[in-house]
């Protein structure tokens, strides 16, 4: 589910501003639009701004100046510049002025939404409490409510692959390959033993809900949200 951001679109083209505000609003964000930098200063809004979408060619104070001023005052705010300026030097100036992402016009709605999603991960990172436990590949350990549980290298590789996989699910042959064994009946049996061992590791870490589920005829699925921490 997309996290909701408080977004202000600074764009002097009325139709484009309206389309952008509508598109972002349809995806669950709280969005308002203004036609110039000066209007933004007079627009307190219902909540602090998380993200600005700024056109560079604005009347009055231009987008580069606005971005630099806002970035200096609010270092953590998200800034997306959307402009017809396409030269490399323009991009560099945009990033130097505080842009997180620099998009050139015409910009598709899908590209703008992807940029917003990318910044959402920084502005509103995942709540650690949403994860059942944490995997630390560097120390090959699993951390849960009951403390730290050591893992083997193969256990760690298998778990990390499942965490990163689409829908946290991999086929049997993929998991066997991760354990550096041949895709044979013996390899399947060895994988089953490893899955049982990993389930026990989750229990030892204090995770009582189901952790690894058999997907009949396919492979295995990780049923928990597990964070990967890179130290």
The shape is elongated
Which CATH first-tier class of the largest domain would you pick? Alpha Beta
Structural class: alpha/beta
Reported CATH architecture of the largest domain: 3-Layer(aba) Sandwich
CATH topology of the largest domain: Rossmann fold
Measured as a percent range, the helix fraction is 25-40%
- The overall average pLDDT, rounded, is 89
What is the radius of gyration computed over CA atoms, rounded to a whole number of angstroms? 24 Å
**Regions with little confidence, pLDDT below 50 for 5+ residues:** none
Distance between the termini: 28 Å
Instruction: Profile the largest sheet.
Output: 5 strands, parallel
Count of helical stretches: 8
Number of strands: 12
Q: How much of the polypeptide forms β-strand, as a percent range?
A: 15-25%
Helix and strand succession? EHEHEHEHEHEEEHEHHEEE
Strand order of the largest sheet: 2-1-3-4-5
Q: Give the number of domains.
A: 2
Per CATH, the superfamily of the largest domain is Response regulator
